[in-house]
Write a structure and sequence with these properties.
Helix content is 42%, strand content 18%.
């Protein structure tokens, strides 16, 4: 499988760690840009053949140009950036997509996720992990959770897309992303029954999969995993401190 790293997000909120940084993927962790940790993990993964990055080529090239197959300039739209990656891998049916801000991820974690996904027939795969599994390994981390029937869960920063699903639904995906804070928009799309079950904390992953399939027209699969590193992205100072601590412990 080939991999696409999304590194186009500008540092619009100005990370407290470095207010002058224009692109968060270039944040240095032990003198290494954050994105390079993600690239190294993909290189280590046995299931990954080629790596493409969608991001600012001029800024990223000095650090990762020799490690990846191609750096493609990004747009302001995450959906368009995924489309750019799919266009590059035009012969690929499925593509692994991940963000550039999960520096604790490893090749083994990537391989485990892909192997789990291969057990199911779907055109989109997305990971979930329980709060207990995250806090057991990283008790100091602060994440956002959803309460579902299976427990208190957190979503990850990695997914597998199949081309037909994306091409058929890219306008819908773009609209949903643009209006991701519009509760009414999502309520109208998902339906009142779905919303009520979520509010009552009785909604299951299976029901999410079924409703998603009704909307996009293709099977979707939520994958329960046990690797919190997929969920630990770097957005704030406490994330940076945790990630730096873990990386230093691995070195020692």
């Amino acid at each position: 499988m080939n991999a696409l790293i999304l590194a186009g997000k500008q540092n619009t909120n100005r990370l407290e760690i470095n207010n002058e940084l224009n692109n968060k993927s270039l944040l240095l962790i032990n003198e290494i840009p954050m994105i390079e940790y993600v690239v190294n993990a993909l290189i280590e993964a046995k299931e990954i053949q080629n790596i493409v990055v969608v991001g600012p080529e001029y800024d990223l090239a000095p650090f990762i140009e020799k490690k990846v197959n191609k750096i493609l300039d990004a747009t302001d739209s995450i959906i368009k950036n995924i489309e750019i990656g799919l266009d590059y891998f035009k012969d690929d049916y499925k593509l692994l997509v991940l963000t550039s801000d999960i520096p604790l991820i490893t090749g083994e974690i990537i391989d485990r996720f892909i192997k789990k996904c291969e057990q199911y027939e779907a055109l989109f795969y997305y990971p979930f992990i329980t709060r207990e599994a995250i806090l057991q390994k990283y008790p100091q981390t602060i994440r956002s959770y959803a309460v579902l029937k299976e427990g208190v869960l957190c979503g990850g920063n990695i997914a597998i897309f199949a081309r037909p699903l994306f091409e058929k639904n890219k306008d819908l995906l773009n609209e949903l992303y643009q209006k991701r804070k519009d509760v009414k928009k999502y309520a109208n799309l998902l339906g009142i029954k779905f919303i009520v079950k979520y509010l009552l904390k009785t909604l299951s992953i299976k029901e999410i999969e079924e409703r998603a399939e009704e909307i996009v027209g293709y099977p979707v699969k939520g994958i329960l995993i046990e690797d919190p590193e997929v969920m630990i992205d770097l957005d704030k100072l406490s994330d940076y401190e945790l990630i730096l601590q873990v990386i230093n412990q691995k070195k020692n």
